[in-house]
UniProtKB/TrEMBL annotation:
Location(s), subcellular: Nucleus
Main location: nucleus
Biased composition (Basic and acidic residues): 97-114
Residues forming coiled coils: 377-411
Protein name, per record: ubiquitinyl hydrolase 1
Gene name linked to the record: USP28
Species this protein is from: Crocodylus porosus
GO cellular component: a single term: nucleus
Length: 1031
């Protein structure tokens, strides 16, 4: 195993060489890699260089260089000068690089210690800023979650966004005589609730806060439930209770003389309808009319809402033609009156008898934005019954056709059956197969001779155009030394015939008829081909008939006469989690903005129908619609008219009673007081010195081991200089190979030879196929540039700057070459190289190295089971790597590898946090909560808010389900249950907060050689699953 891995890392195929290296390293894979790579450096072998250049930019001349490659040897100086002149004529292309200018602010440690629990109004990871408290214009406000109250927020927001309902609540008044005559506890409670709901709605209209506190109204409602306060309430149960209270409260106001008559009750008029049930029970017909508020629908077994409704309207079979003696069961329901607001309650929970507990149904159920209710109305009964009968007959035809089609597609009499056309094709292939000729069948495989690669060439560019560099003819021996050696031709293997024993039975390679005349073969082929064509035509006809009938069924209700009662989707209430716990939020259509908004506790954000589909239809994750609220078409138009124009909320505030206006003014005044107090507290704190943008940038991109003073110098070319300094050993080796050229032809000839050979080496390195254990981009900045098709001018200047590095003061030759190169650099003006573009390319490479270092550090920490530290590095590596990958697939590291170990680390850390939490030890519980709040939840939010993979989605569901499983456990302490109730909304909701993740501690990057060795060792170790420490 070690030999195979060492072979993959180094590319060396000699087993004895690999074995000796492992033996010398005492089995240490990292040391063996070091030994082998050092040997390779001592004995470099130059291969042929493919004659490829970077794409010409900005002109047809530049593009022509792709095909007309010019040989840049000392004998071709005229061609060299021509290419340089052409390259100067090209127009530079400036590539836009996106920079992340937002820096994560440090959380104030002292405030975290004094805060008993995180308030929902605070932005996680930052000090609560007053700007986050204020409402923006007329943007809808959120509702504060005061502990498992997301169900309240979802329902109240859906109702508040109905202008008619909002007007009814805000305009609710009772005569003094009614107030004096109220004696019962329920009546007093209902009146108190209406008053609190009025105040809440008034604040939602006119507050200056980004979200409001619904505690007063909520506490009154919660008292009506017998369940413990810590548990979340069911949306349907809460909505039923809410409508009952509102109905009773308005009944006191609208009809004092006849308490039993609810026909004038505005809540009944707005939300309640009636349906007629007709049927047969035990042979007797019956008929009854019932009222409904929320119409329940089963989800299991249905694909969409129309199928759910169809199934709910018909139960059993009613055969009117049957004899009176027959006992029949069945019933039909018909809506006789539909309310302006039609609410469907989707039954997504069922009780599992074997487990003895409820389970959530996660199956997918689609629903439209507009639904036509004509087909369910009693007024359309006769027409719909005829169409249902037509559909029944058509479905019977489809069943017959499907049975016929199945006989073709599952042909045979045994347990295993196949499509008949395929079976005929197999027989036809058998018939047309011929036995091989006498004599053994030999297959000669010849190795294709390797084509010699093109001669090594040097990139043309403007670095030599503005200089007086004259290239003298070099010795032929030097050219021969720099040129790739010819590979001796490989002898072709000779395949010798293998003589089998005479007694060995000859068996053909493929089944074939042994004895058959040409006449027989022709007849069989003709019959099989004709039969197969006939069968295929039969199958095509059957499928076409089925599709045609299915299309007729789908269009059955498209009659314009059955599209007279449209209802528009107003709100979707979503539940995420399991049967015993979860999180609720709502999608509500905003008529003035003509868009969907997502109401998630304190957060109100703009959304889309695509996001609503993803979260509401179900089937993909543990989130699905639980309640659908449709409004009549006329009411939808009325809502649009009421909400038209800006400042509608302000107009409604002006029409409020004086006491509600005063209530709003007091709350807004308190907000200003809170802001002033917060600003006073901030001014009393010791101000922290924030790093300037320049120093931040330098700290972010610093890659060298320089001291702090030199690292902070505001040098425009600091990154390129650092990259040049990192390659000084390679540069010195290139200069050392120019001794002959330096002695015979001078400094400029030596620079030319070193430049050419170094580029040839890096070009070959960039063309190498990367392996899981090696990444050539880590070896040199130009490998990164070449693999990403950087502009030629950027490549040329970078390579010239490598030879102009002031650290090349080894001997007189190095100093002379360095001085000439620095002169050439000064001669390159802004018209030759776009320095902004040049800087951005080096910034990208610096970020790539940083991502690599963070990835390796995270993997090492993960292997050493330091999951908290590892997760921070891996998350930051992934986020930074995403920025690079937006610019090109070769700009960053392996995204799937980072995501894999980020996911593994997150799961491990979740296990640790959960174990600490259920330990009941106060210190351990606090530690588990801290891990969840500071690492797991922010990481989950970052993952979900980006393009999430199915693997990440599954991992997040596993983590959520684990925490949800603790809800309602009898052996868990009440205090833990309360803490769990505070954690779950954040764990399940990934949009209500702004997530800021701190950057991990800075790490001094390794030299290119050390970084490559470390990369190889770590990549090797993760496949071996063994702990590794690279010095």
């Amino acid at each position: 195993m070690l030999l195979n891995q060492l072979r993959e890392i180094t590319g060396i195929q000699d087993p004895s060489c690999l074995h000796n290296a492992l033996k010398a390293a005492n089995g240490d894979l990292t040391e063996a890699v070091t030994i082998l790579t050092e040997e390779q450096v001592k004995e470099p072998v130059q291969d042929a260089l493919a004659a490829e250049l970077s794409n010409g930019e900005g002109s047809a001349v530049g593009k022509g260089l792709l095909t007309d490659v010019i040989d840049l040897t000392p004998d071709k100086k005229d061609d060299l000068q021509a290419v340089i002149a052409l390259s100067l004529m090209e127009s530079p292309t400036v590539q836009t690089v996106e920079k992340d200018a937002n820096r994560a602010k440090e959380t104030n440690a002292s405030e975290n210690k004094n805060r008993s629990k995180r308030k929902r109004c605070e932005v996680w990871g930052e000090n609560p800023n007053q700007n986050n408290w204020r409402r923006v214009d007329d943007w809808p406000v959120g509702l504060k979650n005061i502990g498992n109250t997301c169900w309240f927020s979802a329902v109240i927001q859906s109702l508040f966004q109905l202008p008619e309902f909002r007007r009814l609540v805000l305009g609710y008044t009772l005569p003094q005589s009614v107030l004096e005559n109220c004696r019962s506890r329920n009546e007093k409670r209902n009146i108190a609730f209406m008053q609190e709901l009025q105040c809440l709605f008034a604040l939602m209209l006119g507050t200056h806060r980004r979200f409001v506190d619904p505690t007063a109204a909520l506490e009154l409602l919660r008292e009506a439930f017998r369940t413990a306060e810590e548990q979340q309430q069911d949306v349907s149960e809460f909505t039923h209770k809410l409508l009952d209270w509102l109905e009773d409260a308005f009944q006191l106001a609208v009809n004092v003389n006849s308490p039993g008559d609810k026909s004038e009750n505005p809540m009944v008029q707005l939300f309640y309808g009636t349906f007629l049930t007709e049927g047969i029970h035990e042979g007797k017909t019956f008929s009854k009319i019932e009222a409904f508020g929320q119409y329940p629908l089963q989800v299991n077994g249905y694909r969409d809402l129309t199928e759910c409704l169809e199934g709910a309207m018909i139960e059993g079979e009613i055969d009117e033609k049957a004899t009176t003696q027959s006992v029949k069961y069945g019933q039909e329901r018909w809506f006789t009156k539909l309310p302006p607001v039609l609410t469907f309650e989707l039954s997504r929970f069922e009780f599992n008898q074997s487990l003895g507990q409820p389970e959530k149904i996660h199956t997918k159920l689609e629903f439209p934005q507009i639904i036509y209710m004509d087909r369910y109305l009693y007024s359309s009964k006769e027409a719909i019954q005829r169409k249902r009968e037509e559909i029944r007959l058509l479905k019977e035809q489809i069943a017959v056709l499907q049975e016929k089609l199945e006989r073709y597609m599952l042909y045979g009499s045994g347990p295993t059956r196949f499509p008949l056309p395929d079976m005929l094709q197999y027989v036809l292939e058998f018939v047309t197969t011929k036995l091989p000729a006498d004599g053994p069948s030999t297959q000669e495989s010849q190795a294709a001779p390797l084509e010699p690669q093109a001669e090594s060439r040097v990139l043309d560019g403007p670095l030599l155009q503005n200089s007086a560099l004259k290239i003298e003819d070099a010795e032929k021996s030097e050219d021969a030394a720099s040129a790739p050696a010819d590979t001796p031709p490989q002898p072709e293997p000779v395949s010798k015939p293998v003589h089998s024993s005479a007694s060995l039975t000859r068996v053909p390679e493929c089944p074939a008829p042994h004895v058959a005349t040409e006449e027989e073969m022709s007849l069989v082929r003709t019959c099989l081909q004709r039969w197969r064509s006939e069968i295929e035509q039969d199958i095509q006809d059957l499928k076409g008939s089925i599709a045609q009938i299915s299309q007729s069924i789908e269009k059955m209700y498209c009659d314009p006469l059955l599209r007279q009662v449209p209802y528009h989707l107003h709100a979707v209430l979503v539940h995420e989690g399991q049967a015993n716990a979860g999180h609720y939020w709502a999608y509500i259509y905003d008529q003035p903005r003509k868009s969907w908004l997502k109401y998630n506790d304190i957060s109100v954000t703009e959304s889309s129908w695509e996001e609503l589909e993803r979260d509401s239809f179900g089937g993909l994750r543990n989130a699905s619609a639980y309640c659908l609220m449709y409004i009549k078409d006329k009411m939808s138009c009325h809502v649009a008219d009421d909400d038209a124009g800006a400042g509608q909320f302000q107009k409604e505030v002006e029409g409020l009673p004086p006491e509600l206006k005063h209530y709003i003014q007091e709350d807004n005044w308190r907000l200003e007081q809170e802001v002033e107090e917060w600003e006073g507290e901030q001014s009393c704190k010791i101000p922290q010195i924030e790093p300037s943008s320049a120093s931040e940038s330098q700290d972010f991109f610093s890659e060298s081991g320089q001291d702090q003073s030199s690292a902070c110098e505001p040098d425009l070319h600091s990154l390129s200089s650092q990259h040049a300094m990192m390659a000084k050993e390679q540069t010195a080796q290139a200069i050392a190979n120019t001794a002959d050229a330096y002695e015979k032809n001078g400094v400029e000839a030596a620079l030319w030879k070193a430049f050419r050979e170094e580029y040839s080496r890096l070009y070959l390195l960039a063309k190498e196929t990367p392996t899981p254990q090696s990444d050539p981009r880590l070896q040199h900045v130009l490998v990164y540039f070449l693999q990403n098709n950087a502009p030629k001018r950027v490549v040329e200047r970078t390579l010239l700057e490598q030879f102009a590095d002031k650290n090349l003061s080894y001997d007189e030759r190095s100093i002379s070459i360095m001085k000439v190169a620095r002169t050439k650099l000064k001669e390159i003006g802004p018209d030759d190289v776009d320095m902004e573009e040049y800087k951005k390319w080096h910034e990208d490479y610096s970020l790539f190295r940083k991502v690599s270092v963070y990835l390796l550090t995270g993997l090492e920490l993960y292997q050493n089971r330091k999951y908290q530290e590892a997760l921070t590095y891996l998350v930051y590596a992934y986020q930074s790597n995403t920025t690079l990958l937006r610019k090109g697939p070769n700009r960053g590291a392996d995204e799937s590898l980072i995501a894999l170990y980020r996911r593994k680390c997150l799961l491990k850390l979740n296990d640790v946090a959960a174990a600490l939490f259920i330990s009941s030890d106060e210190a351990h519980v606090a530690e588990g909560v801290s891990i969840l709040n500071e690492l797991i939840i922010p990481c989950m939010h970052l993952i979900i808010n980006n393009d999430i993979s199915q693997d990440d989605l599954d991992a997040i569901e596993i983590m959520r389900n684990r925490w949800c499983s603790y809800l309602g456990q009898e052996d868990m302490d009440a205090t833990l249950q309360m803490k769990l109730g505070e954690l779950l909304p954040r764990l399940l909701d990934c949009s209500a907060e702004v997530i800021v993740l701190k950057e991990p501690p800075k790490i001094r990057p390794n030299s290119p050689y050390d970084l490559c060795s470390r990369f190889a060792a770590v990549m090797e170790s993760i496949h071996e699953a063994s702990t590794v420490t690279v010095k």
